Fold each of these.
Amino acid sequence: MMTLSFDSQQCDETCKPGEPSSYHNVFTCQPFAVLGLRPSTLLPTTHP
C-alpha cells in the first residue's frame, strides 16, 4: 500500500472518492526532486 499523506476530510464522507494523486502515472526514479513527494510504504504488522 502506498501512502502519501493523511486527509482528514476523507473521513467526513467515507463513500466519496479521494482526491487524485499527482504521483499517479508519473514515471520517475526521483519523486522528491520531480514532484516534491516522499512516498512511503505502509507495512501491516501484529504486536505480540
Amino acid sequence: MLIRPSARGLCVAAALAAVTVLCGCGQRAATLPSGDFRPEVTVVTLKAQRVTLTRELPGRTTAYLVADVRPQVSGIVERRLFTEGSLVHAGQVLYEIDDSLYRAQYDNAKAALQKAKANEVAAHLAAQRAAELIKIDAISAQDNESAVSAEGQAVADVAAARAALDSAAVNLAYARITAPITGRIGRSSVTAGALVTADQSTALATIQQLDPIYVDVNQSSADWLALKQEIDSGRIQSTGAGTPATIVLENGAIYPHRGTLQFTDVTVDPTTGNFLLRVLVPNPDGLLLPGMYVRAVIDEGVLPRGVLAPQEGIQHDPRGNATALVVDAAGKVEERQVDINRAVGNRWLIDSGLAAGDRLIVSGVQKVQPGMGVRAIEASVQAAGAPAQPEAAPQSEAPARSEAPAQSDAPAHASAAPSDASR
C-alpha cells in the first residue's frame, strides 16, 4: 500500500534543505581570502650593454687577379698545352704558334749583326791608318775625317743590327704564349689550327686568381652618413681599418673564413645612391667562385651602452609607430613612444623611449591599460622554473627591482639586413 506524503511535509523538507544550502554558502564566503586582485604581468628589466653594430650588405664575388691571354704575334696555333679549368702557373707555356717565319727573321737579324760587326772592324782599321798618315801629311784632312766618320757609322750599324736581333728574338719568343699570372684558366676560345692575330679582340683564354677573392658589396650613402654622424658624436666607437666581415652564402650557410674590409670607394653611383665596399676573403678551398651572390655582414662600430628590448614587448600602432608598456616605481602601467634602430637577434636595439632599469612588460599586455596597477613578475624567475612571486602592494616607497639580470651580460651583435624598413 503506497503512502503519499502530504503537501505540508514536502514544503517543510524543502525549506530545511534551502536553509542548509544557504548556511553552507555563507560559511564558504566567509572563509575566502581578501587577496590582491591586480592583474599579473611578466616584465624584463632592461640594462645597458656593449653592442657590436653590424650591417648585412648584398654583393658578388670578384677574382683577385684577372688576366686575358692574347697573342702578341700572328700565326697558326700548333698546340694547346693546358687543360681547361686547371691551375696554371705564371710563365707556363699555354699555346705554341707556328714560329717558322719568326725564326727566319731572327736568323736574318743575327746574320745582319755579324755583317755589321765585320764592317765595324774594317772601319776601325781604316780610321787607325788615316790617323797615322795624317801625321806625315800623307793624306788630306778630309780623308782622315771621312775615315773617322765611317768608323762611327759602322759602330751605329752594329747597334742597330743588335736591336733588330733583339726584336726578332722577342717575336720568336711570343710564338710561345705563356701564362701571365698563376690561377685557374677557363675555356679556350681556339683550337690547334686556328689563325690568331696580334691585334684580335677575342682572348684565347682567361686566367683568374681565386685565393684570396674579393667580395664587392654596395652600401647606401644615407646609411653611411647616419653612421658617420653617430661616430662623430661619440655615441658609436668606430672599428677602424681592417674591419672584419662574415660572409653568408647564397643558401644561407656561413662561410668558414672571415674576410676584412679593404677599402671604401670615393664615388657614389648617382643612379642608385650606393657606393662600393670591397672585402678581401681567403678562399683556400675554392668554394667561392667569381660572380656568386653572397651577403657580407660587416662590423660598423661598437655601441658601449646599448639598450636591447625583447621584441614581444614592443607593439606597433596602425601608423607603424612603436610603443611599449612599462611598470613604473609605483607599480602602475606607463606607455612609452619608442624609436627602434635595428633588430639584434630576437630583440630590438632602442634609440630612445626606453632606458636601462625600465621594467618592460613582455607578457599580459592585453590585460592591462596605461595607469592600471599591476603585479610585475620578472621573466627570468619564471624561466628558471621558480614559482611566480608577486610584488608587495605599492607603499609610499618605490618597490625594489629584481636583482636577477633580465638580459645576458654577453656583448650583443646588432645586424641590419638589406631590407631594413625605415624607422
